[in-house]
Amino acid sequence: QWYQRRVRGASCMAIHPKGDNLIVGSYDKTLVWFDMDLSVKPYKSLQQHKKAIRHVCFHPRYPLYASSSDDCSTIVTHGMVYNDMVKNPLVVPVKVLRGHKETSKYGVLSNVFHSQQPWVYTGGADGEIWLFV
Q: Using CB atoms within 10 A of its CB, is residue 105 exposed (0-12), middle (13-18) or buried (19+)?
């Protein structure tokens, strides 16, 4: 199935642990949320970053996802997916995490959540790995 996107240059994707939602990050600073049960069109488009999005991930247990960007930030967002298919997902930004330094025009290149805790690890072009608790 083909999903319509309103982004130029998809850079990363993550599928929700329940399997029915997809987030796509792009080089044009846009994060797009698809509810695959609802439509092939984007449910929500967010432009929270100032530069290209390099990585997105969902937490395996908590209703959280993170997006990392060349603007040297990682944004943690509450992304609640309901079992009731009538309700749309709830998307609320929670925290902007900073710490990496820009290196050769690149910022935060990767992120991953801890499997049990609401902690996020980030890896940057500056060669550092940060843990945010």
A: exposed
Is the pTM value of this prediction over 0.85? Answer: yes
Pairing relation of β-strands 44-46 and 53-58? unpaired
* Residue 17 identity (one-letter amino acid): P
SS3 2: coil
Contact 15, 5 (CB under 8 A): no
Question: What confidence tens digit (pLDDT) does each residue in 76-110 have?
Answer: 999 887 777 677 778 899 999 999 999 999 999 99
| Kind plus residue range of the DSSP H or E element containing 121 | strand 120-124
- Residue 21 pairs in a beta bridge with 35
